[in-house]
Amino acid sequence: MDKITVEAKRIEEKYNSEPTVLTPIEELRLLDKKATQKAQITALCIGIAGTLIMGFGMSCVMVWDMMILGIIISVIGAAIAVAAYPVFKRIFNEKKAELAPRILSLSKMIQEEGAE
Asked: Mean pLDDT, to the nearest integer, of 75-104?
């Protein structure tokens, strides 16, 4: 199939009201994406929030001469930003445990088909 045909088929599937049947590799890719997407978005939001809070604390120190308050706010923001990775790992591991049986069975099925 050429690229135009593949793209036309993809667009047609968006507007097709009938449920589509996914091939095993498509389902495997979708499940893999589901395993990481929620964890990535959550960790990114936490990291950005922590960075903004830390930046506000730094502004307190540099612009408004509030040394003690600025340092406290910056440390809190840094702690929040650092917490993003453990939050990512926890959410990812929970989702991975939930999806692992189906992902492994699909992977095994695809590998067996490829071996034939």
From this structure: 96
Q: How far apart are CA 85 and CA 106, in angstroms?
A: 29
CB 81 within 8 A of CB 54: yes
- Within 10 angstroms of residue 89's Cβ, the number of other Cβ atoms is 13
pLDDT in tens, 26-85: 899 999 999 899 999 999 999 999 999 999 999 999 999 999 999 999 999 999 999 999
CA torsion through residues 56, 60, 61, 64, sign: positive
C-alpha 97/C-alpha 89 separation (Å) is: 12
**DSSP state string for 3-40:** HHHHHHHHHHHHH--SPPPPPHHHHHHHHHHHHHHHHH
